[in-house]
Amino acid sequence: MLNIGVIDSGIGGLTVLFDVIKSYPNCNYFYIGDNKNCPYGEKSATQIKNLSLRLVKYLVDEKKIDILIIACNSISSTSTSYLKKQFKNIKIIETVEPTASYVKQIGFNKALVIATKATVDSKMYVNSLEGHTVYQKACPKFVEIVEDINITNKLKDEIVKDELDEYLNKVDTIILGCTHFPLLIKSIEKIFKGKIIKSSEGIILKLSDLIPTTNQKGLLKIYTTGNNVLFENKLKKMFGKTVKTENIDL
Ligand code: DGL
């Protein structure tokens, strides 16, 4: 059975992990949320490379992964080629190119990419969608409100409306260029009626070439570099899932 590592700065990558497991239950999954260092999106590309290196090293050395899913756009847009050079023996799937291919395939007129500062600064989405009208906006507050277990839905709605308002009539598609943002989808859907694209959609298509169809069921291990009790509470509140998680010190 294939071992798949999945990484993010925190809880966001679980939006990818849970969608991927639904499509491919027949693999073992090892997830790390680097909550100790969250958010990544405000850090420099060099810092993000160094932080992600240690996550992947752990997964390769300890969990013998065959495939790495970078379930974080900030890592994907700053560190993919670096990680590919460091880890030549595993297959690495990032978020940006699969998402760009997927939106091109389903078609769109004008799109807004909302993401972290690191992803926006990399211009990777704009470059991958060259020839199309693509606006991009960094929404660092969105990561904060997703990771904040105590925030009310009302406040979430207000912050989301405030940040997106100027684009709502300009685009027919919003690309969630940060894996934390599907956790704000209810707030976004209240004010936007167009297409909303998540990172998991393109990744699932990309994985179809790599994962054979079998009837097996793999295991799931979730690690955080932060407080695992808090992480479990977030999982329960945001995904409605009761899952044991473990703290790891990296
Ligand atoms: N979920 C991440 C992303 O897709 C990172 C958010 C952050 O840590 O700033 O970019």
How is this structure best described in words?
It is a single chain. The radius of gyration is 17 Å and the shape is globular. It is built from 11 helices and 10 strands. The protein folds into 2 domains: 3-94 and 202-247, 3-Layer(aba) Sandwich (Rossmann fold); 96-199, Rossmann fold (3-Layer(aba) Sandwich), CATH 3.40.50.1860. The mean pLDDT is 96. The chain is of the alpha/beta class. 45% of the residues are buried. The chain has a 6-stranded parallel beta sheet, with helices on both faces. Helix 1 runs parallel beside helix 10 (199-207), helix 2 packs across helix 3 and helix 4 (96-106) packs across helix 10 (199-207). Bound molecules: D-glutamic acid. The site of D-glutamic acid (DGL) has 17 residues, from helix 3.
Could you give the topology of this structure?
Layout: E1 3-8, H1 14-23, E2 28-33, H2 45-63, E3 67-70, H3 73-86, E4 91-93, H4 96-106, E5 110-115, H5 117-122, H6 124-128, E6 133-138, H7 140-147, H8 153-164, E7 173-177, H9 185-191, E8 195-197, H10 199-207, E9 220-224, H11 228-239, E10 245-247
Parallel strand pairs: 1-2, 1-3, 2-9, 3-4, 5-6, 5-7, 7-8, 9-10
Helix pairs in contact: 1-10, 2-3, 4-10, 8-9
The structure holds D-glutamic acid.
Residues 8-10, 12, 38-41, 72-74, 116, 119, 143, 178-180 line the site of D-glutamic acid.
N-to-C CA distance: 26 Å
CATH class of the largest domain: Alpha Beta
User: What helical percentage do the residues reach?
Assistant: 40-55%
Note the overall shape.
globular
Secondary-structure element order, N to C: EHEHEHEHEHHEHHEHEHEHE
Could you tell me the number of beta strands? Answer: 10
Average pLDDT level:
96
Largest sheet: 6 strands, parallel
Low-confidence stretches: none
> What is the strand content?
15-25%
CATH topology of the largest domain: Rossmann fold
What's the arrangement of strands in the largest beta sheet? 4-3-1-2-9-10
By secondary-structure content and strand pairing, the structural class works out as: alpha/beta
